[in-house]
Amino acid sequence: MKVAISLGAPYAADIKDIQLENQMTYVVEAERLGAESAWSAEAWGHDAITPLAYLAARTSRIRLGTGIMQIGARTPAMIAMTALTMATLSQDRFILGLGVSGPQVMEGWHGVRFARPLQRTREVIDIVRMIARGERLNYHGEMYLPIYLATLGPKNLELTGELADGWIGTSFIPEHAHIFLDSLERGARKVGRSLADLDVQVHAGSVAFSDAVEHLIPSLKVPLAFYLGAMGSRRHNFYNEVFQRAGYTDLALQVQDLWLQGQRKAASALIPDELVLKTNLIGTKEMIRERLRVHQRAGVTTLSVFPTGQTLDARLNTLGQLLDLVKEVNAENGITLPPARV
After folding, report:
1. Contact (CB, 8 A) for 227 and 104
2. 10-residue block means of pLDDT along the chain (342 residues)?
3. DSSP result, 173-241
4. Which among 104, 88, 56, 3 is positioned nearest to 323, based on CA atoms?
5. In a 3-state reduction of DSSP, which class is residue 301?
6. How many CB atoms lie within 10 A of CB 13?
7. Which H helix or E strand runs over 207?
8. Residue 307: which of 93, 18, 27 has the closest Cα?
9. Which domains, and CATH codes, for the chain?
10. Half-sphere exposure of 145 (CA within 13 A, CB side)
11. Backbone phi, then psi, for 216, in 5-degree steps?
12. Beta bridge partners of 20
């Protein structure tokens, strides 16, 4: 397994409050510790590309990915132009992560109709790869542009297995990995590939080491309730649907109902402790080590994490401890990662 870090996606109102230099230093130091990739995001604030362009000049090894760049907000040609520019600036360290987002972001923020996401994704990938094949860049070797897709529904997952180099997974519970990986594998088989041909990258939540795990759980119920209740409308909430497919139907619908009624504290209180523990890496070293083993057995190849801490040094310390544990778990299974790119 490899470890990726997330930069987050501030909302428009929060942009001025983000300590950008701390974020950039965090990535530089994460690269030194051995993190494999850093991923930006976008919703209603920072775009996904600009921070990565800045980071390309501050780093030399860590791969830089968009997690995700929203397809509906750009023309396919602009996506290709941006990706090729980033590949050049980063000396081929860029990963193009794409997703269709949802109706609230596409229609409510960008003013673009949310329609036919499968066909739109397929056409965008075809056009981007066609443009990439026609370009030759200024570094040694032929240009290769990795494309990852962030998908949740069965048909979109099949499309990912068929067309993409990697999957960006959210709302992932390793004990229920089959609801994602079965569809990914079906798509891969359509074109003579297997699941092993994809980088299965999942968001493993917050990382926090503590002997008093009960103190960590309450605050982590809020983001889970947010995803179940707020990331979409009552009719279209793809995250909520994922938890329903994992067997949490009653819980997902009850949390959504309370959240949409404005009862956010009550919605968060419904989240069971065990769900927090299954969707984050928190607790003692042995607890986290065992969760890493569970993820690896499920077929995860890259963990995207958010190390916690009140200061930059604290976050880096948490990340360092996690990276050490990942190396231990890899060694248990005879996995040796390739040397760091310089």
Report:
1. no
2. 82 48 90 96 83 95 94 88 94 93 67 79 89 55 71 95 96 97 98 97 97 96 95 86 96 97 97 98 98 98 96 96 97 74 42
3. -GGGTHHHHHHHHHHHHHTT--GGGSEEEEEEEEEEE-S-GGGTHHHHHHHHHHHHHTSS-SS--HHHH
4. 3
5. coil
6. 9
7. strand 199-209
8. 27
9. 2-207+284-331 (3.20.20.30), 211-281 (no CATH)
10. 29
11. -85, -25
12. none
Provide the 10 A C-beta neighbour count for residue 146: 18
Cα separation of 178 and 115, whole Å? Answer: 27
CB-based contact 326:33 (threshold 8 Å): no
pTM above 0.85, yes or no: yes
Structure tokens at 4: 């990726």
Residue for token digits 């009550």?
A: 266
Please state, in angstroms and rounded to a whole number, the distance separating the CA atoms of residues 177 and 156: 16
Looking at the DSSP assignment, which residues form a beta bridge with residue 5? Answer: 38, 305
Residue type, 174: P
Alpha carbons 125 and 159: distance in angstroms, whole number? 11
Q: Which residue has the tokens 């916690």?
A: 308
Contacts of 107 (CB under 8 A, 6+ apart): 113, 114
Under 8 Å CB-to-CB from 274, ≥6 apart: which residues? none
Return d(Cα 306, Cα 37) in angstroms, integer: 13
- Looking at the DSSP bridge assignments, the partners of residue 207 are 281, 307
